Amino acid sequence: LKHFLTTEGLSKALLTEILDLADSFISTQERAVKKVPLLRGKTVVNLFFENSTRTRSTFELAAKRLSADILNLDIASSATSKGETLMDTLWNLEAMYSDMFVVRHADSGAAHFIAEQVTPGVAIINAGDGRHAHPTQAMLDMLTIRRHKGAIEGQTVAIVGDILHSRVARSQIHALKTLGAKEIRVIGPATLIPKEMKDLGANIYFDMEQGLADVDVIIMLRLQKERMSDALLPSEGEYFKLYGLTEAKLALAKPDAIVMHPGPINRGVEIDSAVADGAQSVILNQVSYGIAVRMAVMAMAMSGQVAEQQALIAKGI
Ligand code: CP
Predict the structure, then answer these.
(1) Which of 106, 155, 178, 272 could form an SS bridge with 216, CB 3.0 to 4.6 Å?
(2) Which positions does UniProt annotate for carbamoyl phosphate binding (predicted)?
């Protein structure tokens, strides 16, 4: 692994290697992630141009568990407000001997753009770009399914809500397909389900009751109001009635179905508190697994860079 920008096009073997390595970091007590020296002497920079609670915190914890040094750049008080470009910011931080950047940006393609321009040997990890991709979220979701259902293969997975604006849904669908999910369903209002979902291999449902019938995994998504025009914005009461996950709707899924949500959750909008906090919810487990998955991705990206640097040195470059 050189950079980690998307789950699209990655092999089943590579995705499985990430999950296996993440699993190896989780101690049997489940409440702890091992501290290992894999990134000792390396510097990781968290560069979040959009707000985050889970992703930013778990990347920081993951870097520390890998024994790396981590810098969290506060974008609001940085020189970007003085007109410094994205790449000038990157190159200046690179000059501080940074080895890896974890980047979240509102523009789709931002992480790819940076990855094309950084110095060889510096790794870029995509922590969410626009509505395009959120690959580490998808991988922690795959680990959650594997640990709670035993395997990805054979599962029927429903992704419910604002699919249109969801980078998480796109990354999940690519990973679920590669890892052998039996069926992927996307459920939501027609205005929030893009036609490309069919091309990605998902079955589309506008009726939540039909879409949830006999599924193994339910992944709820929030309405991304910050990316919506008023014309798209449904009334929250009406939305909850049609697409909010209640105990009654959950009963339509298999009895041992699990309920997931990448967060942040909006209680009473896309999910009822009784379900979010209920026995079938694994929402907080997802957050915990985020540390181990991000450790695995960072360790694999860095080992790729080390191999690349060694090859260049061996060639005398
Ligand atoms: N799931 C997720 O990306 O959450 P944050 O926005 O808090 O990082």
Answers:
(1) 155
(2) 54-55, 104, 134, 137, 263-264
